[in-house]
Specification:
The complex is a heterotrimer. Helices cover about 20% and strands about 15% of the residues of chain A. By secondary structure, chain A is of the alpha+beta class. The longest helix of chain A is centred in the N-terminal third of the chain and has 13 residues. Chain A is globular, with a radius of gyration of 14 Å. The chains are: A alpha+beta, B alpha/beta, C mainly beta.
Chain lengths: ~120, ~850, ~55
Amino acid sequence: MGRRDQWKQVQSGIYDPSLKARSVEERETVPDIACSLCKNFAESAYASDGRGLCKVLKIGSDISVTPNVYVLEGEVGYPAYFTTDASSCKYFERMDFIDTDGSEVADPNFRRVQRQMEKKFK
Amino acid sequence: MAAQPAKDISTQELEQKQEWWWIAEKKRSKRLDYLRKAVWKKGALGGNYAPGIKVDLEIPQLFTNMWNFWKYDPAMLRRAKSMAHVLENMPIFITDHAQLVGYMGTLPHTLAWRVDGATMVNEELYNEPGVMPEPEQESLKKVANLNAYWAGNTAVDKLARVLDPEDAVKFLSGAIGWGAPTSAYGYSGKDYEFMFAQRHGFKDIIDLIDENIEKAEDLTMGKPGPEILPVYDRIHNWDAMKIMLNAAISYAGRYARLARILAEHYETDPKRKEELLRVAKTCENVPAKAPQTFQESLQYDHFVQMLARLEAHEGAWPARPDYYHWPMYEKDVIKEKNITREEALDLVGEFMIRAYEVGGFGPRWAREGLQGITGTWVWTLGGVNKDGSDACNDLTLAFLQAARLVRVANPTFGFRWHPKVRDEVMREVFECIRHGLGYPSIRNDPLLIQNAMHWHGHPLEEARTWVHQACMSPCPTTKHGVQPMRMASATANCAKMVEYALHSGYDHVVQMQMGPKTGDARKFKTFDELFAAWTQQMKWIINTLVRTVNLGRYKDPEFYGRPFLSAISERAVESGLDVVSPVGDRGNCWVTGFTWVENVDSLAAVKKLVFDEKRYTMDELLTALESNWNGYEQMRRDFVSDAPKWGNDDDFVDEIMVRCLQEVAKHSKEIKCPSGNNWPLLPENVSGNIHYSSIVGALPNGRRLGDALYDGGISPGPGLDKKGPTAVLKSCGKIDHVGDGRAFLLNQRLSPTQLAGEKGYQLWKAYIRTWADLGLDHVQFNMVSDETLRAAQRDPEKYQEVIVRVAGYSAHFVDISRKTQDNIIQRTVQGI
Amino acid sequence: MKYKDSKNFFPHPDNPQRGDFVERVVDPRQAYYKVKPVNANDEIPADAAEFAGK
């Protein structure tokens, strides 16, 4: 795969807007085992809408299929969303501290400021 | 609501306590007091909007309905028709006591939402706590529907599809810069020369457009040939401009009608009735015609700003109010005495308040980077006329005086200092600083005019019209000089330059190979090897950002379109092109350099402790950095205290600063903007130093991941400038403020106690003389004591009105995050 | 109640079927008059009924 095609794949994984055309119900549900609760998930430093990258899995992985596809080598992390169901992911590690306080500033590793996350932790 | 001062405290006592906000309350008129307290602050508290602030859903719905209806029209025409529908149907309001009207939302507490800008921002909005109007569930449904409509169709989505995917992914990682490469979220300069100096009302502009359409139709109905082909599109563009101008006149007419209805049917107070009728007359006259009174002049300007902000989310407010409103002020206040100076001062104060209340929903990175405000409204005062004579006038004084009465954090002022400024004006400037406003910033006018000519080739007369395009960068307000679109996406997180040089381009925070693989730094044997890697990473970061923004600018007329902004710009009215098109723009681009000085202090530390003194090896340093200095505390302290730091007049580190800047300056002339002009660096930070604190990894200046970065520009690290204010100025004076970059921000904290009274003024004036003699282009001051700031941290309710200079802008201290507050307190208070 | 029957409705001179409906609002920070273009024959919604005033 050429350079451009590789990055296109990454781009569509991270920024495909069609992923966002979801119902209110889907948008409001944060599964009990979700990527946002995992210490291996880092939120995007650009968009605070809850998208992010896995710090362990790399691009090409897929935890939405059975069996999960795990790619551990690569230059870009596996794209996920704060509501992504991680119940089947063997790399899920629950994070003890989750910061939902939006009055401080960006911290890709610990902060999850979405309204749905606030609700979940209240 | 802020706590109230004890009524029996005298002004003198309040002055001694430096509680200037209570003095302002005592001195300002009842109208200004009401209007100032009536403002719903839209700036975020850290990163969150204040309670009670809600997103406006009505305008995006009106816009989207019509956008969908006109789906076969080209971008500019489609936007014009959709915007006209919004202007005709959006609810409008007039606040009690107001004499100036117009807001970019439908209610005073609402944030405008640019629904067609970026899917990511729309998604953020959906997930944002606290901003949905009640009932929340109903609002969420509306937003979800709007988001579904726009997903993939916003300006940023369209651009992302044509960008190189590698650039798109790396830019959108958020690690190397911020901003959105579209005029949907830009800063637009306004062609004040066309509207105000040449006195064109919107009807005059429509006449000009009609003449141009007529000439164009002679071509399109004439002899066929390739030269007439572009003309068809231009006719559509002119039509779009006309639609917007007519819609704007009708929109103003709606305010006129409301004011008249209120005067005739609701108002019982004869004085207010008279005011409302004057508001009605004002809105009937402007923007349709060129202003004839001072009130009309301000109202015209305010309408222009609101209309531009209804068309796009504008992050700045380039303006020069004492210059362009002077003719009507002079006529009404000085020559014809139609209004008193006090009445004029009331209007000026209200003009500032109207700008203060403006706010749109911004992505979180923008809120965190501009804590406490919604954009950098830096208005330009002072300076020179086109012939080089002093432009300061009584309106300059009025703005400076009104600022102390209304004490808003936004707009702030940048004052164009030059040797001919009268003492009377300098005293007023100083009073604002002494009152703790943090503004005006002081700009070296002769030097910046020279700089504008050096970097962008603006002719002298045009360069002399310059205004702050955002926080810092000068830009003319002329036909070819005005910059219609400056997107923040050429804003570099410069600390990544040295970070990537040390990690061969890999970013451990966003987990991605970002920059070029410049080699394992453990194997570097000389400082020059490290510097070469730094240079490569610097070029890569700047190139990636500039490529993105250049393409965004070039494609913007197709992906977004600015019919209103075009309609108020002489070159677009003349050419029929979207004003954002680079054609006819001389070019005034710059790369904002956030977190710049970390490079200098880090490189100096490595040079001294690793390569010169060999106290540590590169391997040891890299290991310590990879552990975020954990387990290496003594070593970290050595890198903080034993390495020279910028701002102490130490040639060892100052030479590295100059070398880095010159390397960038060389590159700045190799890369070009869409108009073919240069891209100089402009180091400054806003509160990006806090936003990036958990995004920039550990650095050799001793900083850990999570620590605040320096406060920016060429300001020394907080508390690291230990040799006094003159040493700071001397370090900064080693930079060529013309040839090494576009402008250089310098924050300084001064002691309010030392600068009290006449002696204080004379000390400050002497400081400014030294600053000018050393050839610096910018300086801004915080003059609020540690005691007050700490008291405000303990008891924020009591200190709601304390303002501080953050960097390039001011904010209420209580509206910035704790980390930012601490960072300001840590800055060295310089005795001068 | 229709807009046209309210004293806070002001028909547009060029098109009496359309007009402005004026509401007085006092929020926690300020008082203001708000106006919205409406159709004369539309029903006034419940949340604006208090401003209708026959």
